[in-house]
Amino acid sequence: MDRQTLGEMDLPAHIWEPFAQSRAAIRCSPGFLIYLQGTEATCFYYLKEGRVKSFIQSETGGERVLNIYRAGSLFGEASFLDELPRVSSAVSLTPCQLVPIDRELVTQAISRDPELALAMMKYLARTVRLLSHQVDQMAFRPAQWRVARYLLSLADGDDCLQCSQDDIADSVSVSRVTVSRILNDLSRRGLVELGYRRIQILNRPGLEGLCREE
Length: 214
Description:
Layout: E1 26-28, E2 33-35, E3 44-49, E4 51-57, E5 63-70, E6 74-75, H1 77-82, E7 89-92, E8 96-101, H2 103-112, H3 115-140, H4 143-154, E9 160-161, H5 165-172, H6 176-188, E10 192-195, E11 198-201, H7 204-210
Antiparallel strand pairs: 1-8, 2-7, 3-6, 3-8, 4-5, 4-7, 9-11, 10-11
């Protein structure tokens, strides 16, 4: 399981759409900070369109990416449900449409369709499983595997990624020097093309072969 499977996880398609039926979506541009680590969680979100990154920051400013959410996902629900400060921040990576879900809205939606409550419990359980899988990746996988998997998780339809080497280093817990060495190696092998804050995946099957489960 990788980052891009969190919104799917064998749940029925469009299962969260009831949350968006009675409330208009909020539009935001790339780079918009949706919520901040340590703040009160007064709502969670249904991602109607776009992609959102959740991440944690250390006191020294270091960043670790937790997940990349795609259209059809919920995010920010854990802190909302346990009524504790947010453990992560979230920022839009692309133009997005978000539906904020507060207690009134979630109560109304679940009263109309009680199956949503069970689906949310399953979603939360799978989120925990996903994060455990990511810990395993960061702790035991080689740096090349981590970088290749991260690039694949960010890939758009045209396989063009907007990210810097610092972004990648922060996300996969390796040094920027290591990321630079790995990317240059992937470029020499014809798997990617490097540009300024841009990476084009040229050979997706080849990149997938580097991080295929043993």
